[in-house]
Amino acid sequence: MPETTLAAAAIRWYDENARDLPWREPDVGAWAILVSEIMLQQTPVVRVLPAWRAWLSRWPTPAALAADTPAEAIRMWGRLGYPRRALRLRECAVAIVERHSGVVPTDLDALLALPGVGTYTARAVATFAYGQRHPVVDTNVRRFVARAVAGEPDAGPATRPADLVATEALLPAEPVRAARASAAFMELGALICTARTPRCADCPVTEVCAWRASGRPAPTGPTRRPQQYAGTDRQVRGLLLAVLREATGPVPHERLDLVWADAAQRSRALAGLVADGLVELVGDACVLAGDRPG
Ligand code: SF4
Fold it and tell me: Ligand 1 in contact with 193 (CB < 6 A)?
């Protein structure tokens, strides 16, 4: 089966089975798609949906976000996790205003040059917002391609150039159709060719999948353990930020001391927030970045 036929089967399946997600609506602009891609990187769809709507209702354009403070971006990010993304997204909005007159650029290199926009996000925006032909490779796509084409049980460590080449080889030549194929591969990886329990019986490419054809050999590498959250510095950072998000002025250290009993871990987490540019020290108190009293 030629690889473009694999794309055709994936697109047919996608046309009938894709989730109805608001950032896939035809009238959604590049800014809304960029925001969705950054939010979705490390956060499940169900948590992103309300945050994405709230974000765009407050900041419908890059210029609107660029005009607001980093602290407000961190507040709006709420409990989505990995809050540095809020800062990067605001920096990205500022760069779009300064370099591109407030319009998300169409050119891949210009997208790649924006703060917080990496290989994946730049290609996702160029593809899904502007209908260009680029391989869009996230974890789900890497796994789908590794199984369907290479017959591997898992994708193994990311090898960016090789991943891009392997996925590009599957894309139809026509850009809009290639963009559809990219969306289909992502959706298949998210819903059908999942990490733990691939649903091969429901998969549109099951007849040509190399991994299924070879009897679904088990992975031989070390089993990846799920990431812990409870008790980690990440949890403490989240608790500290939650207090600072709610505050209307500087928060004294004594107030922050109440969120976590282990003083060493608490100061390590706070130092991390300061180093990441999320929090600023003001005397014996702390504020969110950009919230320093005038
Ligand atoms: S047949 Fe199974 S392993 Fe192959 S691509 Fe489909 S879900 Fe993944």
Answer: yes
pLDDT score of 92 more than 70: yes
Q: What is the dihedral of CA 111, 112, 117, 120, to 10 degrees?
A: 100
What is the full DSSP assignment across the chain? --HHHHHHHHHHHHHHH----GGGSTT--HHHHHHHHHHHTSS-HHHHHHHHHHHHHH--SHHHHHTS-HHHHHHHHTTSS-THHHHHHHHHHHHHHHHHTTS---SHHHHHTSTT--HHHHHHHHHHTT--------HHHHHHHHHHTT--SS--S--HHHHHHHHHTTS-SSHHHHHHHHHHHHHHHHHTS-SS---GGG-TTGGG-HHHHTT-PPP-SPPPPPPP-TTSHHHHHHHHHHHHHH-SS-EEHHHHHTT-S-HHHHHHHHHHHHHTTSEEEETTEEEETT----
Tell me, using a 6 A CB cutoff, whether residue 190 lines ligand 1.
no
37 tagged catalytic:
yes
**Interval 173-222: pLDDT, tens:** 999 999 999 999 999 999 999 999 999 999 999 999 999 999 998 887 76
83: Cβ below 6 Å to ligand 1? no
pLDDT of residue 221: 72
What global pTM score does this model have?
0.93
**Residue among 3, 16, 25, 37 flagged as catalytic:** 37
* pLDDT at residue number 159: 73
